[in-house]
Amino acid sequence: MTTPEQSRVRGGLAGTAAAACAVCCAAPLLALFGIGLTGAAATAAALTFAGLVFAIVVAGATVGAVWLRRRRGRRDSCSTGTAAGPVEIELTPTWPVEL
Question: Are 8 and 2 in contact (CB under 8 A)?
Fold first, then answer.
């Protein structure tokens, strides 16, 4: 038989405290986990977006630089006004040479 001083459920005070803790702390803990996961997802999305924007800017600058280089190369190429061919070169010493 049980006496009025004994509880029918073992750990009556500990069980009550655990139940109260679960009821009281569940919502804040779930909110913190939600905020943490949401923050991680937002960080990943921001880094992905920043990486894509950086890649687009670098690709645009590369295409522009190549286009400008080719455009200047055509403009600054050798003129076709004179005929190409052999050129006479005279080799003379520029200092006194004693043989």
Answer: yes
Ordered alpha helix ranges (H), 1-99 = 12-75
Alpha-carbon distance of 66 to 84, in angstroms, equals: 29
pLDDT digits (tens, 9 = 90+) for 8-50: 656 677 778 878 887 888 788 778 788 888 888 889 999 999 9
d(CA 69, CA 76): 10
Residue 28: both structure tokens together: 């804040």
For Cα atoms 26, 16, 31, give the angle at the middle one, nearest 5 degrees.
Answer: 5
> Quick one: which of 32, 52, 54 has its CA closest to 44?
52
Structure token pair of residue 14:
């500990």
Is this structure's pTM higher than 0.70? Answer: no
Q: Are 9 and 15 in contact (CB under 8 A)?
A: yes
